[in-house]
Amino acid sequence: EQNLGVIYVLNTGYAFDAKYSSLIIKLKTLFARMDSQEKSKVEDQEKSKVEDQEKVPLNIDTIKELWSQTYNREGKPDWSHIFKYYDKDIVFQDTIQRIEGLDDFIAMCNRLTKRTKQLKMEILAIAQKDNVIMFDWVMTMMFKKYPNTPMYGATKLVLSEDGLIKEQRDYYDLWGDIFNNIPRFGKMYRRFLIKKFG
Fold it and tell me: pLDDT (tens digit, 9 = 90+) per residue, 48-105?
């Protein structure tokens, strides 16, 4: 009589020859992994629903509220509360760089967080027409090795059909505002600009 070996019985009640045991174990592991992935997918969907419910429509009032929260009680910048309002294909551009995609935009914000000791922003004026929002601001930054530096600028936001920010363009005089805080050099810089371009 052929030796069938040890018989394994699964939760389903079916019996299998021992030679199939490794295959059965692999299948059980695969099904467990699939269940885990499906559970994770459902959790992500639920999380996304909660985030969507927590979102507020972007307009003049909500922009002022959200942007004023870019620093915590210690003054260190934190943009995490507004990332959910950006389109995954966001195009950001300012005086020194152009960034495409939400991941790269978040990475840029995180770099600035590490470099600055303190950041405060005050919106001076804001206006909206259709899906375009523009506002003037003054941002005060304190870097780890340098004194407070006020910087004046403006931001243009373009909203998508879903109400997310798909374009952001920041305008500011980076070097002019920084040079103003350097004794003697600031005046020299201004005289040079007036002479060459004024």
Answer: 544 554 678 999 999 988 887 776 556 667 888 899 999 999 999 998 899 999 999 9
Report the C-alpha gap between 112 and 27 in whole angstroms: 48
Can you give the chain as a three-state secondary structure string? CCCCCCCEECCCCCEECHHHHHHHHHHHHHHHHHHHHHHHHHHHHHHHHHHHHHCCCCCHHHHHHHHCCCECCCCCECCCCCHHHEEEEEEEECCCCEEECHHHHHHHHHHHHHHEEEEEEEEEEEEEECCEEEEEEEEEEEECCCCCEEEEEEEEEEECCCCCEEEEEEEECHHHHHHCCCCCHHHHHHHHHHHHHC
Q: What is the pTM of this model?
A: 0.65
C-alpha to C-alpha distance for 88 and 136, rounded to whole angstroms = 25
